[in-house]
Model the fold of this input.
Amino acid sequence: MTDITSQTKAALAAIAAATSLDALEAERLETLGKKGWVSLALKTLGGMSPEERTAAAPAIQSARASIADALDAKKGALEAAALEEQLARETVDLTLPAVAAPKGSVHPVSQVMDELAEIFADLGFAVATGPEIEDDWHNFTALNMDETHPARAMHDTFYFPDKTGEGREILLRTHTSPVQIRSMLAQGAPIRIIAPGRVYRSDSDATHTPMFHQVEGLVIDKDIHLGHLKWTLETFFKAFFEREDITLRLRPSYFPFTEPSVEVDVGYSTEGGRRVVGGHGDAPGHAWMELGGSGMVNARVLEFAGLDPAEWQGFAFGLGIDRIAMLKYGMNDLRAFFDGDPRWLAHYGFSPFDQPTLSAGVGAKA
Ligand code: DAH
Done:
């Protein structure tokens, strides 16, 4: 009995003195562990007569209980102290400036999309979106390209194996033009939207990637004519390239969804091996470069989109975003756009704090 009392006293003292969780665990093994003296003492109860057991059990049980309580309390105290110590060690000073931390940058394509939205918002255009996984009705048929139209084959389309519930082919949209159809069907006329986004074609070399970016424009209203189209694009390019001497040439062309159709060329010169937009393409040292397609929306397209061509007219255009980004910011390899190389991004990317605004300029450099 005295033995247990003094052993318990010693154990409680050792627990109180433990300065680490390891030391505490060693003490637990020595007392309550399988081979610890408390456990062995409890086992001896089995071999005793009932009278002996009644006499010996309370002391052993109370030793076990007081040691278990002391271990628990000490464990809690040591863990709390360890947490305190860790919290003190790992403080972060939130008042320090963030410049020392590694920072991300805005991809030129995202930057140019923000610039487009800002400039066209000022001209009264809303930003519209449509699905990248399209059906062939929106991507082709409603744009006046039926199943047998040769332009379908020219689009190098990625098709999915399945069809929609209505039996339409499912594909990755090959251009942003289906957003014209979706917008007209959803909101009717009048309408003034741009639709920037990803498009896909099975094509890949230094100037083509299987995924690239376009921006679609659509204006539907009454008495709209080609003059509105030319003014709108000219005003946009002046704001985008931040120069007044932008000269556009509309060259007759063909697209199934516009009639008449024109290709939009811009005058440029070459300075230090780099193309610089500006000036008249026929002026000395200048030439014309194609920037996109456009035209008056074909009456058939208006009908597919549920509008009466006798009442409504409009123009549409499509521009390659990657192309105009390369021109504006002097990048020459399209593939680098989509490599995700942090060195390229550090060089050509933009500060997230440089939001394009009309008042501060849409072309702020990183
Ligand atoms: N969707 C055409 C393409 O990807 C580009 C285009 C041309 C869009 C003329 C238009 C347009 O809206 O009017 O090749």
Remarks:
- The chain has two domains: 2-89, 108-348.
- The chain has a mean pLDDT of 92.
- Residues 108-348 form a domain with the BirA Bifunctional Protein; domain 2 fold (CATH 3.30.930.10).
- The first helix runs from residue 2 to 17.
